[in-house]
Amino acid sequence: MINSRRFELTYDVESVGPSGIGRVELWGTRDGGRSWSSFGVDEDRKSPLLVTVDEEGIFGFRVVVTSGAGLGGEPPKSGDAPDVWIGVDLTKPACRIVSAEPAPGSAGRLSIRWEASDMALAERPVSLFYSTGADGPWTPIAVGLENTGEYKWA
């Protein structure tokens, strides 16, 4: 996952014949390989390849190399699997504190409830902090929490 519509894709050509590399083209799919589109040609035929996508989402890519003699270089066909998947996520996670109140049945604990959502949240994405002022400094209450929606702070 990356947070940019523009990125570099590195590739490696394992063997180069006497005619050298004639063309390096990037093909992409948004539907698991059912359809493919050209994402451009690497003019200098040297890794990395600069890629620009129009929107966020999950993209599958395949690099197709043609020799200087015109051999190889077949574009992927419907049903071919991508060589690499790259997720472009430009949307910041949505999160908010829902409540902070004494925890029922847990003397001396504060029940902090939140909502957090995103297309691709990490496994333990939530960290809670407090401050005595709006500008900080911020002190951690708990970090690396699962997104359960509640934490009881002693």
Condensed summary:
The chain is mainly β. The protein has strands at 6-9, 21-29, 37-41, 49-52, 57-67, 84-88, 94-102, 110-117, 126-130, 139-145, 150-153.
Structural class by SSE content: mainly beta
Low-confidence parts: none
Helix content: under 10%
- End-to-end span in angstroms? 36 Å
Strand content: over 45%
How is the biggest beta sheet arranged? 4 strands, antiparallel
Chain-wise SSE layout:
Layout: E1 6-9, E2 21-29, E3 37-41, E4 49-52, E5 57-67, E6 84-88, E7 94-102, E8 110-117, E9 126-130, E10 139-145, E11 150-153
Antiparallel strand pairs: 1-4, 2-3, 2-5, 5-6, 7-8, 8-11, 9-10
How would you explain this protein's 3D organization?
It contains no helices and 11 strands. The protein is elongated, with a radius of gyration of 24 Å. Helices cover 0% and strands 46% of the residues. Strands 3-2-5-6 form a 4-stranded antiparallel sheet, with no helix packed on it. A 3-stranded antiparallel sheet has the order 7-8-11, with no helix packed on it. It has a two-stranded antiparallel ribbon with strand order 1-4. The mean pLDDT is 94. The protein is mainly beta and 154 residues long.
